[in-house]
UniProtKB/TrEMBL annotation:
It is a single-pass membrane protein. It comes from Pittosporopsis kerrii. Component of the F(0) channel, it forms part of the peripheral stalk, linking F(1) to F(0). F(1)F(0) ATP synthase produces ATP from ADP in the presence of a proton or sodium gradient. F-type ATPases consist of two structural domains, F(1) containing the extramembraneous catalytic core and F(0) containing the membrane proton channel, linked together by a central stalk and a peripheral stalk. During catalysis, ATP synthesis in the catalytic domain of F(1) is coupled via a rotary mechanism of the central stalk subunits to proton translocation. One of its GO terms (cellular component) is chloroplast thylakoid membrane. It comes from the Eukaryota. This is ATP synthase subunit b, chloroplastic. One of its GO terms (molecular function) is proton-transporting ATP synthase activity, rotational mechanism. F-type ATPases have 2 components, F(1) - the catalytic core - and F(0) - the membrane proton channel. F(1) has five subunits: alpha(3), beta(3), gamma(1), delta(1), epsilon(1). F(0) has four main subunits: a(1), b(1), b'(1) and c(10-14). The alpha and beta chains form an alternating ring which encloses part of the gamma chain. F(1) is attached to F(0) by a central stalk formed by the gamma and epsilon chains, while a peripheral stalk is formed by the delta, b and b' chains. Residues 71-98 form a coiled coil.
Amino acid sequence: MKNVTDSFVSLGHWPFTGGFGFNTDILATNPINLSVVLGVLIFFGKGVLSGLLDNRKQRILNTIRNSEELCGGAIEQLEKARARLRKVEMEADQFRVNGYSEIEREKLNFINSTYKTLEQLENYKNETIHFEQQRAINQVRQRVFQQALQGALGTLNSCLNNELHLRTISTNIGMLGSMKEITD
């Protein structure tokens, strides 16, 4: 400290030898230069630095305010999107449940209609079988009747002679005549 005070004291005692000179004592001149530079910076730079810091502070505050507004808007949009998502999920679940129940209903209807169709086909089959059986029975009856008739005619033709044949015809004509009289 003594060197610092000595340097101030020695300012007044500088020799006037030729004009301007440099003090090469670093320890004596450095604190003085620093104090002068700091004083000038504080005096002149205070307003500029204060203005710059105030501007920077306002820009930071505006940026924070804008960010908060954007964040609030984003949060609001996120909540709306979540609400829409929940609504769509509920509708999808409802469609899924309705779809499954509709599929089950259609499946049951299809099974029932198939069962009814099978029943009808079974009935048609049974009716067709019954019809074919009746037709076959009638054909067999007709053939049996034809064969019996042919056999009877053959027997009659072989057994009947002319005299027996004429008596049979006369008897039949007589029976027809008496039947006619009864009906009149």
